[in-house]
Every structure is written in structure tokens, then in C-alpha cells.
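protein under study:
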Amino acid sequence: MPFIKIFNKKKINLSILKKILLEKGFTVKKKRVFFNFYNLKSLYYTGFSSIFIILFSFFLPFSLNIKKDIVVAKTTIENNSKQNFQKVLEGKPIKKNEKIDDGLDIKNLFQDIFSFDQVPTDTVRLSASTIKQLFKETNYNLDEVRKKGIVKPIRLSLLPNEMKKIESTKKKKNLFIQIVLPLIIEENDKIRLDRKKLFVILNRSNNTNAEKKWLNLKFKQYGVLKKDLSTLKVRMDEVPISLAIAQAAKETGWGTSRFAIEGNALFGQWTWSGEGIKPAGIDNENASHKVMKFKVLKASVRAYQRNLNTHGSYRKFRSARAEMRDNNEELDSLILADYLDKYAATGKEYTVIIKKIIQQNALKDFDKVKLLPSSIQLKNLI
């Protein structure tokens, strides 16, 4: 029979089988495929595309936020010595192998000091007699300062030419102190305000863009590498008033030196390039240094403080000062002076002289005096 023959074959011929079934009276119906991939592939593609678009639109804002966070993270302040900084705040000792106050970026170190050259200032040089009369009329004298602890905000830009002609050593010293005292206090107040702002920023969990910008500026001003907050905290600090006065007195001969009169150089800072005053007796300009020259006295004071607060030669000075802060002690100029042996070629002999000037002239009386405030911020410091 054909039917049997068909099944004996290795392969069944479906068309013949269908024909035989029809002859026998069977009805053969074609099964309807509702979800044939080939027939509905355009529908599938459309569905998959729609789902992809929806998911892409949903996750796109998240990806943009992540990218934004990465960019912001790169601009935020990194505290590479967070543990050290916390130890400093708590007054705990730092291990010798844990480095802070290390390295110096000099690129923008004196940028704000050089800006004094661009700012119009009253640079009229008053005579010694005029200055004395001004101090008398404003009742500004050192006896009152020692008694009340308040200094009148009288800021002079230049020293009088007659400093050498003042015969009385006491009067000459008093006049010099009266001139430089407000300038030194004003710069210390500026540092104190910055230091106060630094701690406010550090005590917050999140900082504003303005605060981050301010921190970046201070990192540059103090030559801090890798945005290290511990280093900034150690460097951004005051210089005792008595120490600054003593060094200015030593370097200028109580305001009588040529460098002080001609270049407003109160602290004898050296420079090997740029504008400066050549010391007498040195002929070879290529092998000699110059004494840094400033437009106004205030710039000299700021440059001096920036020098002590950043230069590697005074790292031990800053470390001793930070230790005093950690122990809640007053900054002692007689102790800190011992760490300035590298300020002059005479080394330890220089520090001995500085301490004698402080003691013999009772300069420590001025360490706690305040400048009569000219703003609400300064008033809060008193």
C-alpha cells in the first residue's frame, strides 16, 4: 500500500501525506501562528526601540549628575593629611614621619604684595615734626598704648627723612615704634580673620563654591602644595608684635637705614632679581644680592610675615608656634626668636640681639594691644 510505502521511507513527504489524507476524507487545516517572528519582526523592533528610548531618557539625568559630581570632586579641596590635621586640632603629637608644612610653591607667593604697586596710595612723605604733631593731636603715645592696650589706626606709608637727625635715642625709638606698630597689628589682624574663617570652613560638612575659591587663594598665597589643610593651618598664623618690632629695629637701625628710607624695607629681605637696593661696597651686580624695595611700608610688613610663614628656613619657627597654639599658650617672642638663627648670617648671635631688643625696650607690652577697629569684623577681634 502507498501509505505503508510512505512510512518506510527515510523521510516523510508531507505533500503526499496531505493528498492521501484528503482522499480518505480527512480535512487538513493549517495551524495559524499568531506570533511568528518573521511576520511580526517589524513590530518587535518597534517595541524594543521604544523600550530602549524610554530607559535611555530615564537614566540620562543620572549619568549627567554623576559626570557633574566627578567634575566638582576634581575641584574640591583635598585634605591629604586629614588625620594629621585632626591631631593638630586636638593638640595631639604628630609622629616624626608624618610630614606637614613641607614644600613650597613660590609661583603666587607674593602676588598680593606686588599688588600694592598697582593700588593708588597716599605716599606723601611727612616730616618728623609733622608726624609728632599728628600723634600729639590724636593723643597717640606709647604710654597710653601700654596702659589701655589700644592703638590708634594711624597708618603712614613712608618714614620721615629726619630719622637720623633725631638726637634723642628714646624719642627716635618711640617715633619708630609708633609708625610701625599700627602696620604690624593690621597685618596680624588680617591673618587672624583669615585663620578664623579657615576654622569656620573646616567645621562645616559642606562648603560653598565661594569658600572653596577662598581656600584655593590661600593655598597660593602660602605656597601650600597638594592643598594640604594641615600645612595651611600651620602657616596661616600671626607673628608676635614684639618680635616684628625688634627685627624691624635691628634691620633698619630704628628706621635710619638707607634701605628703610629709600625702599621702605623694614626687614632687610634679600632679592637676586627684580627691583631692589644694592648694598654699599658690592661692585659685581651678577654675584650680589639686593635688598628688596617696596612702594609702601605696609607691603614690607606683609612680605616679612609671608616670608616667616612660608620659607623653609623658618619651618622650626612655625612648628614651635604651632605647638604653643596646641597647648593654648600665648605666642612668646623670646622663645620663638631662638628659631630665627637663619634669618641673618650671624646665626645664634642674631637671635641673642633680637631678644635683647625685646627685653630692653619692653616690647612684649605690645603683644596684646589691639588696633582701634575700623570695621565690625575687626571690632569682633577685640
